Amino acid sequence: MISLRKPLLAAALFLGIGLGSCSKDGDGVLLFSVQDDIALGAQVAAKTDSTYRANGQLLERNAANARAYALLDPIVNRVLNSGQLQHRNDFVWDVKIIRDPNIQNAFATPGGHIYVFSGLIDFLDNESELAGILGHEIAHADRRHTSRLLQQQYGVSVLLGVLTGNNPGQLTRIAVGLGQLSFSREFEREADDYSVTYLNPTMYSCDGAAGFFIKAQAQSQGNPPEFLSTHPNPDNRIQAIQTKARELSCTGRTVNNSNFQELQRIL
């Protein structure tokens, strides 16, 4: 059982927060501490792992899958080591692959646990696009968007129960629902903006995320990627990402995609 973090408990008591109450999205009030993010993220990630492991979908970090992660991890680390993250040294920052060719999605827990579906990796055209999408999800965790949205949806008292191990049913619901969280326009815009910022010091074309949205938009009339259901409005987002990238003069970089293509073949 994880012990209750004093900053969260003190804030909840001081503000008189009861069952089901919550902070409104965008009001700037986040009652979770960074330590609470880490604790909640660890529990949610463990439940997420066990759920997909039971279905045989979690690509474990073991010898059998060593090559896949040897190809993925350098992409992740280039984004993480850009020098632009607020919580680079606070959060765990592990990225895991869920094997499902039919789902084109990715999501983040509090505390820096990132999950990416094999269907999304297969959908992308190059390594810069993957780096851009990973940067977007890393931003959701680093800017603590996921914690804010969970606080809004479930209320502080419910999350307190999860943190103290007293609400395992709710923990399961949170873990199952993470991939379907719909962030506000403000949070999506900020995550897009930081994705560009994170990629700027790297070798990647820093408008990589825009490449995904362009392709996804072209397919939106048929079978659009699941990522679009929780990350809507591709038109405005493509323009904003490209504008930010032009401002930073970090577009059009050419990257050798042989490792990315090998990762796609492995999955």
Explain how this protein is built.
The structure is a single chain. With 267 residues, this protein is mainly alpha-helical. It has one domain. 56% of the residues lie in helices and 6% in strands. The protein is built from 13 helices and four strands. It has helices spanning 6-14, 34-54, 66-80, 118-123, 127-142, 145-154, 156-163, 168-177, 185-199, 208-218, 227-230, 234-248, 258-266; strands at residues 58-59, 94-98, 106-108, 113-117. A four-stranded mixed β-sheet has the order 1-2-4-3. Helix 2 (34-54) packs across helix 8 and helix 3 crosses helix 13. The radius of gyration is 18 Å and the shape is globular. The model is unreliable at 1-28 (pLDDT under 50).
SS element count, helices: 13
Number of domains: 1
Largest sheet composition? 4 strands, mixed
What letter string, H or E per element, gives the SSE order? Answer: HHEHEEEHHHHHHHHHH
Structural class: mainly alpha
Shape annotation: globular
Outline the low-pLDDT stretches: 1-28
- Give the overall average pLDDT: 84
Q: Per DSSP, what share of the residues sits in E-state strands of 2 or more residues?
A: 5-15%
Q: Helical content, roughly? A: 55-70%
Strand order of the largest sheet: 1-2-4-3
Over the alpha carbons, how many angstroms does the gyration radius reach? 18 Å
Oligomer: single chain
Our measurement of the CA-to-CA distance between the termini, rounded to an integer number of angstroms, reads 36 Å
- Count of extended strands: 4
Keywords: Hydrolase, Metal-binding, Metalloprotease, Protease, Zinc
Family: Belongs to the peptidase M48 family.
InterPro entries: Mito/Outer_Membr_Metalloprot, Peptidase_M48
Cofactor: Zn(2+)
